[in-house]
Amino acid sequence: MSKLFIFGIGGTGARVLRSFGMLMAAGVGIRADRVIPIIVDPDTQNADLNRTVEMLKSYKRLHAVAGEESGFFKTDISKLADMDSRGDGRVKDAFTFDFGGINQSFKEFIHFNEMDPDTQALVQLLYTQDNLNSPLTIGFKGSPNVGSVVLNKLINSPELRFFADNFRRGDRIFIISSIFGGTGAAGFPLLLKNLRNPNSGLQNAGDISTALIGAITVKPYFGLQTENESVIDSNAFITKTRDALAYYKNNLDGINALYYIADNPDTPYENRPGGASQRNDAHLVELLAALSIVDFMEYEEADLSGNTLYHEYGLRQDSPNITFEHLYEETTHRIGQQLVKFMLFAKYYKDFIKEDAGKNYYKALNLDSAFANDSFHKELRHFLENRQWGFFAWLDELSRNKRSFVPFNLSTSDLNLLVQGKPVSRSFFNKGITHDGFVVRLNKEEKQLSSEANPNRKFIKMFNHVTEDFYNNKMPTI
What we know:
Blueprint: E1 3-9, H1 10-25, E2 34-40, H2 47-66, H3 106-109, H4 117-126, H5 129-133, H6 144-150, H7 158-165, E3 172-178, H8 183-195, H9 205-209, E4 212-218, H10 237-251, E5 257-261, H11 284-298, E6 309-312, E7 321-322, H12 329-351, H13 360-364, H14 367-373, H15 375-385, H16 391-400, E8 404-405, H17 435-448, H18 455-473
Parallel strand pairs: 1-2, 1-3, 3-4, 4-5, 5-6, 7-8
């Protein structure tokens, strides 16, 4: 089985993985038998990180029931620890890299007070007092020079060694990072250098050093409010990006496909350097960055064996409010159908399904009891409706950000008007997509899937088939 290891570095890495998880929930296909995300961020209290972790854990529980043939939640997203056949707890059972709680300043981390005076003087030339006194518990606060020192411990970590132990020829690696901050800008080239080193001392170092590796480098796409007390100034993002790009040009070796994305920032975010207060609304850039992972996996090995492939993303039409019509056909082909189908399912599940009590499919699946007692349905509601990280919250955040992504009309109760700019045609003889129409098709699908013994898996398959039927036969092409 081929595996895809995704290293999501820093806050941007976590946010892109959140959008990636939503695409996988919708059933967007990816050419990998198993996906293993590893989030690398010392700021363990970062709200964006923790929202992503909770989403991934919920997804994993739903996939365990839905299976790989269900359409929705079909991709196996696992933790590193899930590959621990010995069960000896060599790595933490989490989606995050364990920094062991770096509860100290950078000055303490490098043992500054134990250095001789000449070395201290050199360190003070390289780092500001803010750098030296900065607590590492909230990351590197836009300082890649600090991050590069701390992240050197990656190579000797249990996680990286366990990753190497379980890496096999044919597996691939993808790295997500920003270029204008601290953790991502430092972590990406450092991680790549270690992975490409056949003498790293890691198990299977030879196979890892020749593996296919892709990455997305996220350039500035948001600004921050001016805050006198904050050491992060978004006015320096462009300067940092230029410096990092110059470094990448001369020192970044061994990447098979490199993706770039950026946007002109509009409404600035609150200036929160880290911790529980760092909670940014989902952004279109993060969704498109997640799509680069899918694109990378579409390439055959021979296509990636030559010089580095470079990619940028462009909209078909510029607008402050993006719908499916503003995306190129290749993008809508990859994500449009599955997102529309999943939205139809999620909307029906949230707003209509309780009205179906007494219908044939409802009684056959004993849904009254299942909704009240079954952990699968509790988890499904959690995934869709959680106000912090759920599917509807994610769509709402995308819709209110600048620039916004508004593929759906989130306020309508009319399923024919669900897709922005693409209403379902109706006439006297054709009512489009209706509640009654859903019931008729669900009843039919329940009978046709009589061989499926697991009622929850049958439930997901039913809705996947019904929404696909509506998409193909009722909805206009997006």
